[in-house]
Each structure stands twice: as C-alpha cells, then as structure tokens.
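SUBJECT: A protein chain and its fold
Encoding: whole-number codes for local backbone shapes
Chain under study, with its fold:
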Amino acid sequence: MTVFVVQSEKYAVSLPRPKNKIDMTRLSVNVNKVATLRNARGGNTPDVAEFVRKAQEFGAEGITVHPRPDERHIRRSDVYMLKPLISTEFNIEGNPQPAFVDLVTDIRPAQVTLVPDAEDQLTSNHGWDTRTHLAKLTTIVRKFKQAGIRVSIFVDPDPTMVEYAKKAGADRVELYTGPYAELYDQNPRQAIDMYRAAAEKARETGLGLNAGHDLNLRNLNAFIHAFPWTDEVSIGQAIIADCLYLGLQETIRQYKACLK
C-alpha cells in the first residue's frame, strides 16, 4: 500500500493514498478581507478589482465573494463591478434571502454557494440542516439552476446532510472545514477521519465536492490527499494573511502546490 505522510509540529501520520485522482482541485480566492481592509479607511485602497486581476493572473482558478446585508466587506456594487473582470469562475456565497437571490440571478455567476448565515454573523460557522430545510432549499436550488447557475450547499461533515443536499437538487456540497482546521494541529488523522464519511457520501451520490473555512498552508495538502475528488477549495482569510509575508504571487503558488 502506498502511503503519504501528514506532518504537523506534533505529529507525523501515515495515511493511505486514495486512488482515482483525475483533475487537480481548483483554488478559488475569497476576496472579502481585501474589501474589509479597504472599507476600514474608505476610498479604494486596496483596490479589490486590481487584487482580483492579479490573483487570476497569478493562477487563481476562481474568485469567491460573500456579500452580507450590512456590506461590511464586499458590497453589492462590488459584485457588479467584478463580474466582467472574472476570467475564471465567479462563486457568490450567501444566505438565500430575497435580496441575495435577486443579486445572484441578475449576475449569473458560475456557482452560488448557499450558506445559512445570520445577518449579523461574524463569519460562517455551521452548515445547513438540509433535512429540516429540504423544502426551502429545493425551491431555491431549482430557481438558481433554471438560471443556469451551479448550486453548492454549505454543510457540516455529516453524510446525512450531504444526502439531503442531493435530494434538494444541489450540484455540489461545500464541507465546512472549520472543525477540521481546529483539530488538525493536534491530531491530523482524527481530523481527516471526521470528514471521511461525508466526503465519500458526496462521491457515492454523484455530488461535486467543495471545501472551505480555515484551510491554510499547514492543513490543505493533507485534506486533498485524503479526498482527491475535491473539486474546489475556497480560501480567503489565510491567503490574505499569507500575502502579508509572502506576497500574492508566491502565496497563490504555494497554495496551488498544496493542491497537486
């Protein structure tokens, strides 16, 4: 059996290398934090549009935004401004309230990711209960798919939630990886095992698999090795932080190296 070694400061763990990796996982860069920094002083520094251009030039295969109702980072006007600049894939995340649904159906990005955030929530910290909200999600998914938009539903690493996302008609699920990142530095094997059933359920049911939240240069490679059928990772906070030390081009290079 071929193995790979997952390294952390405390652990070196050998895990089986899964088979059937066909395409490299795509990197979508979330630019919310760039807008947060801009909004802190007003004006247009840093320039979100220029950051998006450079991120794509340096190898990002997608751009993600999460416009919240309070517009504390990405604004509705940003979403319209960025649309013609996207030469890769545009992914818009958010809670499918009426204003968000109208925005997404007007913009028609490549993908919409449905996230159950409250209006005043600091950051996404849980996925949908897709079983409880099946009827609501089914209606929303149908509306977006009729507009030609790929739909991903943000879920916790629970195979039942993945199964009901499939019943709702989603094309993909995005696994909330906050718990994975929190546990990874202490116990990489346990962190990976916590996601195995959900990731395998997505593959079994024919759903595409995305992942996002707190993924970084320490923990990303192990996740992709464990679940090489992951279609896309969406990363924002860690990429923007690493840019302060490494610069944007080198940061994107290193993240893409983790996805090989």
Remarks:
- The chain has one domain: 3-258.
- The longest helix spans residues 188-205.
- The CA atoms of residues 172 and 207 lie 5 Å apart.
